[in-house]
Write a structure and sequence with these properties.
Radius of gyration: 28 Å
Distance between the termini: 61 Å
CATH class of the largest domain: Alpha Beta
Oligomer: single chain
CATH architecture of the largest domain: 2-Layer Sandwich
Number of strands: 3
Helix content: 40-55%
Strand order of the largest sheet: 1-2-3
Strand content: 15-25%
Number of domains: 2
Shape: rod-shaped
CATH topology of the largest domain: Alpha-Beta Plaits
Structural class: alpha+beta
Length: about 140
């Protein structure tokens, strides 16, 4: 039973873009499959697919539930997955590349160091220097 469960989830993961579309494939992912044992020995177990997505995406995907079930059963056979449950997870955020900062000119560096000459504490002086540099870089933009 366990072997079949993980093979099934692997097949869903492999075809995930085809099942939910490219847009939702990036924002949601199949989490697990739960099987419910049949009451009668000759019946097949019923499977529920759990999909993890942000609250907003879950709200939209609930309306696509029947379409998703239809696509899964079209790819893998009728009655393979009987229900879908949505799990609310933290949204996936795109990683932004770091901003390129402009370096200070020698005059700007000298001006900043002159302003900080009277500060005796080296740790405070270093922090104020970094703050001053970032302020000067922001004003350049």
């Amino acid at each position: 039973m366990f072997e079949r469960k993980y093979i099934a989830l692997g097949r869903i993961v492999t075809h995930w873009k085809e099942i939910v579309g490219a847009d939702f494939a990036e924002r949601a992912s199949p989490a697990k499959i739960q099987y419910i044992k049949p009451k009668q020995p000759k019946e097949h177990p019923k499977a529920t697919l759990e999909i993890g997505a942000s609250s907003a995406d879950c709200a939209v995907m609930v309306y696509q539930k029947d379409v998703i079930l239809q696509r899964i059963n079209q790819l893998f056979g009728d009655g393979w997955i009987h229900d879908i449950k949505f799990l609310h997870v933290e949204p996936k955020r795109a990683i932004k590349p770091p901003k390129r900062t402009k370096t200070l000119t020698e005059n700007e560096k000298n001006h900043l160091s002159q302003m900080l000459e009277s500060v005796d504490d080296p740790e405070l002086k270093d922090r104020l220097s970094r703050l001053g540099q970032s302020i000067m870089q922001e004003t350049k933009k």
